[in-house]
Amino acid sequence: GENVEQHPSTLSVQEGDSAVIKCTYSDSASNYFPWYKQELGKGPQLIIDIRSNVGEKKDQRIAVTLNKTAKHFSLHITETQPEDSAVYFCAAGSGSARQLTFGSGTQLTVLP
Amino acid sequence: EAGVTQFPSHSVIEKGQTVTLRCDPISGHDNLYWYRRVMGKEIKFLLHFVKESKQDESGMPNNRFLAERTGGTYSTLKVQPAELEDSGVYFCASSQVGNYGYTFGSGTRLTVV
Known about the structure:
The complex is a heterodimer.
Chain A: E1 4-7, E2 10-14, E3 19-25, E4 32-38, E5 45-51, E6 56-59, E7 62-67, E8 72-77, E9 86-92, E10 101-102, E11 106-111
Parallel strand pairs in A: 2-11
Antiparallel strand pairs in A: 1-3, 3-8, 4-5, 4-9, 6-7, 7-8, 9-10, 9-11
Chain B: E1 5-7, E2 10-13, E3 19-24, E4 31-37, E5 43-50, E6 53-56, E7 65-68, E8 75-79, E9 88-95, E10 103-104, E11 108-112
Parallel strand pairs in B: 2-11
Antiparallel strand pairs in B: 1-3, 3-8, 4-5, 4-9, 5-6, 7-8, 9-10, 9-11
């Protein structure tokens, strides 16, 4: 089955700096790669996703890149703000109604 | 639009007891998923319903776990009897057929003592 590795497990950045979280996956059949943000006491919230026919996608301060050959994808957050502090999860899946395999999460702390 | 609702938000039970978790998906979402996060590790898939049918239950850990989705609306996940290793946060998520993204509920934190 699919295996997703996520690094780092914790990340602290100064407000205004950039943050990068990286994930690798094992199953070449995976074609959907979402990123979720989980704030304290809440469920994971989808913040951006990418499909395997796209190499990069951007939404304001958030961008995701995908390298299918190397089987890795990354989340980039620019101009970080304190409200970006949360746990971020990457995931991989195939098809629109299939299970997702999640990484173990990254605790991002943005220091004011 | 109301989100995915889960209750209870917290449950503390003794080993050997029974607990039932409930999930109300977003109205019109035929896909319903259960996931679990244990001890700060990754979020792991448990099972997937399409309407009232179990599409994939490959992630269910053992036969102490029973999930139902009567009438294709809300779903319940029963753990009977509960063991210590069942402690964790149980998430429910839903999506429309054909959509890739899930909407998660806030989760139920289950503690078995």
